[in-house]
Amino acid sequence: MLYKKSIPQIIQEAKESGEHTLKRTLSNTGLVSLGVGAIIGAGLFSLTGIAAAENAGPAVIISFIIAALACSFAGLCYAEFASMIPVAGSAYTYSYATMGEFIAWIIGWDLVLEYALASATVAVSWSQYFNELLLTFGMSIPHEFLKGPWEGGIINIPAIIIVCLLSLLLMRGTKESSTVNNILVILKVSVVLIFIALGWSFINSANHTPFIPTNEGEEMVKNGELGLWAFLTSDHFGQFGISGILRAAGVLFFAFIGFDAVSTAAQEAKDPKKGMPIGIIGSLLVCTLLYVLFSYVMTGLENYKTFAGDAKPVATAFAQTGYTFLNTALIITIIAGYTSVILVMLLGQSRVFYSMSKDGLLPKLFSDLSKNQTPWKTNLIFMVFVSLFAGFVPVSDLGHMVSIGTLFAFTLVCIGVLVLRKTNPEIERPFKTPLVPVIPILGVIVCILLMASLPVESWERLAIWLLIGLVIYIFYGRKHSKVRRLNK
Asked: Which of 46, 51, 214, 436 is most buried per CB count within 10 Å?
């Protein structure tokens, strides 16, 4: 039997209030800011140069639009669920209502990969940029305190400190955390806008010509010199031309990941029925506009070929303006970007575990709230867990695990919309995903294709992680499930 939570039951939970529930403090603007905070990280400053140099050239602008469109398939599905079921838990809760407890457990456990490991990975990168900022002022942190023991150091102290500080902030309260996130978002968006505004007048149109660099393989296919399958399996595929634009879109898709963290805060939104779609779709639209303008200016300031192998492509491009002062501002922006990403990821993880604990699948301590109505014990546990990863483990190679965990969640949410439209068509939906079943099906296809493009090691690690989760579910979650007790 598939043990499911009924939609009316979940909606009733969403209406609960009082000191033993999460506090509704987030405005619509705060939700958009939360999404922007999770989406815009240093990826904007690194992935743009890589995708332009290796795949699309100036047409990376088109790649960003395609990536945003692909990401919006899942985003629209998230918006429907979040407005209809405005509780903490995100994809975990949606899966519980549509596909049953076992799938819900899998996705809840899977989200640890997205949120906890993403926090650790980003914290490690944060420490490197923080040290780079110190270098501009003639200071630095000794190497042994910037790397873990497996990377030639002893401990990554800055990474541990930032995780601890942000965890303590989350324990303080959602309103306070949102205020800090808003400040960080304003800072990084401001610098991106300054880059666009100052760089615009220095754009050299010659750098945008040709806008779509020629792909020799595509030309050979047109002339009948090369078969289509031979082209698709050759080194020519993905190196500029139409195939390069598509390959770059696949790379840039991950620059949009993070909007789903908005849905974990549904139970803390003042008006979730309106606010959740605005937060999810609004943050995607804002980031898409910024990404397109940013990439247009960046490829206009410097020829895209220059960015090949460049660790700081944005600084290289902006050097053409003569405004060298912004290089330090860019480092500060990247630090702010990373900080807000860590903050939102830590918040998202604690809310998923809060929901799982409320359902009995995890111990009660994960849903215990402080006087500030925050799951402080969960925040404290993950502060230690994430800090250990960030401080000692070489998490740089776990980036693909974060990606595969996220795409897995996206896939199940898209499937969930299809299932619920069939099984519960009468339920009120404040926001409806348009063009169902086309949009959810496209979302599933895009996510599966991107998952298939990830290394085999990612699938192996995901399987091991889910196996560990399965053991915990069998020996604890299944026995303490509240839904199972109600159905017996």
From this structure: 51
